[in-house]
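Reopening: Ribosomal RNA small subunit methyltransferase I still failing for me.
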Amino acid sequence: MTLVATPIGNLGDLSPRALETLRGADAVLCEDTRVTGALLARHGAAVPMLPLHDHNEDDQTPRLLARLRAGERLALVSDAGTPLVSDPGFRLVRAAVAEGLSVGAVPGPNAAVMALTLSGLPPQPFLFLGFLPPRGGPRAAALAGVRAAERAGLSATLVFYEAPHRLAETLSALAEAFGGQRPAAVARELTKRFEEVRRGTLSELAAHYGAEAARGEVVVVVGPAPEEATGEAELDARLREALAAGMSVRDAAAAVAEATELPRRQVYGRALELGRGGAAQD
Ligand code: SAM
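Support: Ran it again with your exact input. Result attached.
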């Protein structure tokens, strides 16, 4: 079986080897036969297609493994980009690998890597997180998990896929989780006519897309946690100093969150604890 990457917008990005592999396949496994059918037709390739998507992958896998065992050449594509990356195919590949069947790939376009390389943010290490949960609560919980990993030492550029209609709220959630001053980039419509990479802090990007809804496909890239002392001792010292100077808990938290680029919620929670402790001691 061969995993074949296809264009993410610019049809000129289908490689000669990708085309050759698709032409020579006994069948092309694809998410949507209309999308892949159009790609094949454009290149005059008449190859049988079989739908493979999240809802039928488990059912189809035993049948497909039997075909691979029988020596058939199956190519796997997704609607766009590299198959398996936030797209179907992983369960089939895992099963084929477990059986010792041959699995190869024709590499090519991938929106996450292209966005990463254009973001101006450190390219490695990077952590690809795909789509965040669409609902606010689970999304905040997922981001809190990443932030906890950062506090435990993770320092990586983060890459997310997102739907355009959720971009503004996701950027706000990212600013809440990682601090509004964190550098980031939004890569939109990659390889297409209106390709754009907008770079700025999470606050700036959230404000921009809050005022002007994004159109097309987007990737969000977030820079790694700043190296400055995010340690708890440093946070406490700064908060104690601000509280001792007579600032309210709210103002102290806002000032320290701004200075340390730590999430407001985290700093406010700690400021409340310290404020309470201080009051008890008085
Ligand atoms: N397998 C694909 C790949 O290799 O990039 C990703 C498929 S995933 C279902 C679709 C998401 O990828 C989109 O919602 C968007 O976040 C991102 N994406 C795909 N094409 C893109 C493009 N041309 N410009 C920006 N983002 C894109």
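The pocket of S-adenosylmethionine is lined by residues 8-9, 78, 80-82, 85-87, 110-112, 161-163, 187-192, 217-219 (CB under 6 Å). If you still see a failure, please send the error message rather than a screenshot.
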